[in-house]
Specification:
Number of domains: 3
Bound molecules: flavin-adenine dinucleotide, nicotinamide-adenine-dinucleotide
Helix content: 25-40%
CATH superfamily of the largest domain: FAD/NAD(P)-binding domain
Radius of gyration: 24 Å
Structural class: alpha/beta
Strand content: 15-25%
Shape: globular
CATH class of the largest domain: Alpha Beta
């Protein structure tokens, strides 16, 4: 094969694209990956999952040292924030991981092309670099171009006072007053970071609840907890505009006085990246939400063109993009490849964390499916008492007739780790009784899942 002809070209090196490229190379395909940003890793590694989790960790340690050590008999004084070091650590974490993808590409013989990729016709991708355009050809092309922050009419982003999550990962000072537009995952995670570091945080949400899509009961509990932490929620608030003014910003809300603040974080969702991709040259038209339509094997309407991750339907999650990338190239290379969408967990990395997998009570009711419920509070867990993390609960939903687990929803410390057991159980089509009878180490938070399963399957738990 010539230098620029491959079995597969992947456009985009986020968790969907880079994982697909590596897996395809491991399966014996010759693979090129085109990425427009200097660093590999996509939204997730550069300006998403990883930097936000680094900030959540540092801010949690700062707040816990300031507010919680006393109760453990540890006296500290003069606790101070060194924001520059905190931000530098976050940048170092990102750089280490993005460079790691470069090494993985070399190890797996994935050829990287730096530049903006676009179709010029079936099987043809042009990579626009600074002074030159490189032409690549391949039998198959995988679109993994991800997503970007959704704009909101009237909100004028200036990349400083009024910005998106990208700016909120790097404010040079703790804002006196941060207004967050949208009580979704980004608004709550990054709102938590700056609230812990000392900002007054006001979250404006259009709906009458936070975290749409999540279990209603747990979302309500979460709101009360965040309010206790000092975050102010104004639900039912429709934002119609925001702009920088002087050294701060102004936000317009229907039915209220304009809100003055120091900074604004716009977090009202994300939209797929398809602009400038030359999709028309291969006959692909995105749907009304800008997503590329695919079949069960991630094939688009154009022969030899596939799409995965945030650019197609489904939750915008890094691990969902990864699963799709692997299933897509496995199907290309072997004829088999499948994603079990029922067992994809989602986690909000606030404190406490909120995690879920499978269907919510609201979804089961809407679908007319009879279910049994076990709900075990961490207040009744020995380990939760010992570590001082008694907030929250595990809620397990099982089919009323077959006992098969249909959904698990957890709010509490380490919920993001605990949900993995529930996801594996669901992937293996476990019943509530299966989990209830499995031995769980004592004392662990995971015992709360076992107890919730006992309640769902037999009506009672041991410890509450
Ligand atoms: P992306 O990661 O967006 O990658 C697409 C890549 O394609 C990018 O690198 C882009 O530069 C490149 N690209 C686009 N167009 C072109 C082109 N024409 N030519 C060349 N390259 C191109 N998800 C989680 O699961 N857990 C989390 O904790 C989490 N936290 C998040 C926090 C924040 C602040 C944000 C914004 C998102 C978070 N997400 C999280 C969502 C997660 O980042 C995305 O779901 C995930 O990155 C999607 O992966 P992807 O590969 O589809 O796309
Ligand atoms: P989101 O969809 O989670 O939340 C957006 C919120 O904005 C909603 O509650 C919506 O009702 C509200 N809203 C919309 N228009 C509004 C208006 N005019 N005024 C006030 N409120 C308005 O979106 P997000 O928080 O921006 O996150 C985007 C995506 O990134 C999510 O789909 C999520 O999957 C992904 N993400 C995941 C994680 C994680 O897995 N931990 C973390 C961050 C982001």
């Amino acid at each position: 094969m010539s230098n620029n002809t491959f079995d597969l070209i992947v456009i985009g090196a986020g968790p969907g694209g880079y994982v697909a490229a590596i897996k395809a190379a491991q399966l014996g395909l010759s693979v090129a990956c085109v990425e427009k940003e200097p660093a590999l890793g996509g939204t997730c590694l550069r300006v998403g999952c990883i930097p936000s989790k680094a900030l959540l960790e540092s801010s949690a340690r700062f707040a816990a040292t300031r507010d919680e050590l006393k109760a453990h008999g540890v006296k500290v004084s003069g606790v101070e924030l060194d924001l520059a070091t905190l931000l530098r650590r976050k940048d170092q974490v990102v750089t280490t991981l993005t460079k790691g993808i470069d090494s993985l590409f070399k190890k797996n013989k994935v050829t990287r092309f730096a530049g903006l990729g676009s179709f010029t016709g079936p099987g043809k991708v042009a990579v626009k670099q600074k002074d030159v355009t490189v032409e690549l050809t391949a039998k198959n092309v995988l679109i993994a171009t991800g997503s970007k922050s959704a704009p909101l009419a009237g909100v004028v982003l200036d990349g400083d006072r009024v910005g998106t999550s990208t700016e909120a990962l790097a404010y040079p000072e703790v804002p006196g007053h941060l207004v967050v537009i949208g009580a979704g995952v980004i608004g709550l995670e990054l709102g938590s970071v700056w609230s812990r570091l000392g900002a007054k945080v006001t979250v404006l949400e259009y709906l009458d609840r936070i975290l749409p899509g999540m279990d209603v009961e747990l979302a309500g509990e979460a709101r009360k907890t965040f309010e206790k932490q000092g975050i102010e929620f104004r639900l039912g608030s429709k934002v119609t505009g925001a702009r920088a003014e002087g050294k701060g910003a102004i936000v317009d809300v229907v039915g209220s006085e304009p809100l003055r603040c120091d900074r604004v974080l716009l977090a009202v969702g994300r939209i797929p990246n398809t602009e400038g991709l030359g999709l028309e040259t291969v006959g692909i038209a995105p749907d009304a939400k800008g997503r590329i339509e695919v079949n069960d094997h991630f094939a688009t309407s154009a022969p030899g063109v596939y799409a995965i991750g945030d650019v197609i339907k489904g939750p915008m999650l890094a691990h969902k993009a990864e699963e799709e990338g692997i299933a897509c190239v496995e199907h290309l290379a072997t004829g088999y490849g499948h994603v079990d969408y029922n067992s994809i967990p989602s986690v909000v990395y606030t404190h406490p964390e909120i995690a879920s997998v499978g269907r919510t009570e609201e979804e089961l009711k809407a679908a007319g499916i009879a279910y049994k419920k076990g709900s075990f509070p961490f207040l009744a867990s020995g380990r939760a008492r010992a570590i001082g993390e008694t907030e929250g609960r595990v809620k397990l939903l099982a089919d009323a007739t077959t006992d098969r687990i249909l959904g698990v929803h957890i709010i509490g410390a380490h919920a993001g780790d605990l949900i993995a057991e529930a996801a594996v159980a669901m992937a293996f089509h476990a019943s509530a009784e299966d989990v209830a009878r499995a031995s769980h180490a004592h004392p662990t938070l995971a015992e709360a899942l076992k107890e919730a399963a006992m309640m769902a399957t037999g009506g009672v738990a041991i410890h509450c």
